[in-house]
Amino acid sequence: MTDLQIAITAHNIARPLRRGAIVTVTKLADLEGRRTRNATRQTATVDIVNENDLAYTNFELPDAGIYEVSVRHPGGLETKEVDVPETSSVVVPTFPSSDLTPLRRIKARLDRQSNGNWIGLNSPVVSGNRSVFAFLRTTAAGMAEPNFENFRRTSLIRPGSVVGRFIRGDSLQLQALDFHEMDAVFSLLRDTKPQTEPADRWLALLQPEGRDLVSVPWGWQPDPFDEQRDVKLSIENGYRRDRGINLARMTVDDTVWNALLDYVTLGRMADASVVARGISDNDPQMQWEPSASLPERALQGKVQDPMVATLGGIVLVSTAESAEAQRWDAWLRNLANWFPGIPDSAAIYGYRLLQLGEREVAHEWLIKSVQAGLPFFSATFRLLSLAFAQLGDREYGRRISPAATAVDPTQPFTVIHVPWDKGQ
User: Fold this and answer.
1) Whole-angstrom distance, CA of residue 237 vs CA of residue 222
2) Which candidate, 395, 402, 424, 408, places its Cα nearest to that of 151?
3) Exposure string (b/e) for 251-275, b if CB count within 10 Å is 16 or more?
4) Does one domain contain both 392 and 413?
5) To 5 degrees, how large is the angle CA 216–CA 222–CA 226?
6) Distance CA 271, CA 252 (A)
7) Tens-digit pLDDT profile for residues 121-171
8) d(CA 305, CA 311)
9) Are 66 and 146 members of one domain?
10) Cα 88 to Cα 83: distance, rounded to the nearest angstrom
């Protein structure tokens, strides 16, 4: 037996991206260069670490030889050939996606204003800023929460609700909600009346080229007794060369789920499933049911963490290999029934019913999702578009098309850019 120790690095990341790389080691030839007929192959998920703080993962190989190391990561694919005469080590640098690169942050604290009209962010006001953001106070008189029909209306932005400014290229970190605020958020997700005023879901970022509607996933909250998991919500603002505009980005920095978020956002659901299994197999906090995958476990804990359960549902329906009933179908139904305030849950369940051939019931759930409002996850727009196309429902296909086209598919959570109308 021969050991090959592999470290996967990215430049200047603040902390490891847990199980963020999928590494495949394949034997190509022996040390004399004779090609291997029956190539041995091993695949494992590996942390992506800072190049100055290496951490190696060991691969036990059957014998010496020339091996190919293939690394799939959120930023792409890297390959390297390695001679392994005996125990060896190799470092594979990756080119990370923007999610892996830490940005300078403007610290801010969430405060409730005394007039009760809006929740503001106390942040430094710097002269010369080009972008301004404002909370959409949907509970105020005459206000409606953004949906598939009205998301382009300027009237959604409440006059006088400007609460802060962005320095171009920076990000603003949101402080976690307290217990009472979180309880109010979960009440809305369950479609029940909250006892206290909940934090607003929507932000509007007023850009030179238009306005960005940013969905804030306040429900993405770890168990308060989970000391191994840390979650931070940030709103970033920067210039997007691919689109030629300034664009906001809603970022969740989660020590457990970051890699999965990256792969789901990229639409690489097969890789997301592999990463999910790698996290669950290597995290002692999650080994209470070895037969369950990470998305399944997220769904089993749906009451405590419905947003993560929703992400798990997206992965499950996107990687389902057959139309046969699965044990997690009941969990998807419960998620949709228990959390009607998460439009994604009805969309996921409707998509799954369509996979099972239950077209009429699937159609009902998909329509229910659209009527519930805009999804939290950008991937859900893809599910809705695919489902209505398969059903041949042109009416609802046209109804969701403007928002599905305007949503930014390169980030996990819903951010919709609406250009300014002429004359504004």
Assistant:
1) 25
2) 402
3) bbbbbbbbbbbbbbbbebbebbbbb
4) yes
5) 160
6) 20
7) 333 322 234 455 555 544 444 456 789 998 887 655 554 344 444 444 456
8) 10
9) no
10) 8
- Interior angle at CA 211, CA 424 and CA 220, nearest 5: 160
Looking up tokens 């002692």 gives 284
Rounded to an integer, what is the distance from CA 151 to the centroid of its chain?
A: 22
Residue 69 CB: number of other CB atoms within 10 A?
Answer: 20
SS3 5: strand
Residues 71 and 150 reside in one and the same domain:
no
| Cα 403 to chain centroid, rounded | 18
Predicted confidence (pLDDT) per residue in 79-124, tens digit: 888 888 877 777 777 754 433 333 333 233 333 333 333 333 333 3
Strands 105-107 and 171-174: parallel
User: Which of helix, strand or coil describes residue 259?
Assistant: helix
Bridge partners of 65, per DSSP, are 84
Residue located via tokens 């951490």: 55
Count CB atoms within 10 A of the CB of residue 363: 18
Question: In this structure, are 339 and 267 located in the same domain?
Answer: yes
**Residues 254-292 pLDDT 10s:** 888 888 888 888 888 888 888 877 776 665 554 444 445
b/e for 179-211, b at 16 or more Cβ within 10 A? eebbebbbbbbbeeeeeeebbbbbbbbbbeebb
Rounded CA-CA distance 194/372 in Å is 17
Q: Tell me, yes or no, whether 93 and 127 share the same domain.
A: no
Structure tokens given for 78: 């890297």
Q: Which residue has the tokens 């359960």?
A: 309
Q: Which residue, chain included where needed, has tokens 């049911």?
A: 289
Please answer whether residues 133 and 198 qualify as being in contact, where contact means their C-beta atoms are separated by less than 8 angstroms.
Answer: no
Q: DSSP readout, 76-127? A: EEEEEEEEESSSEEEEEEE---GGGS---EEE-EEEE-TTSS-EEEE----T
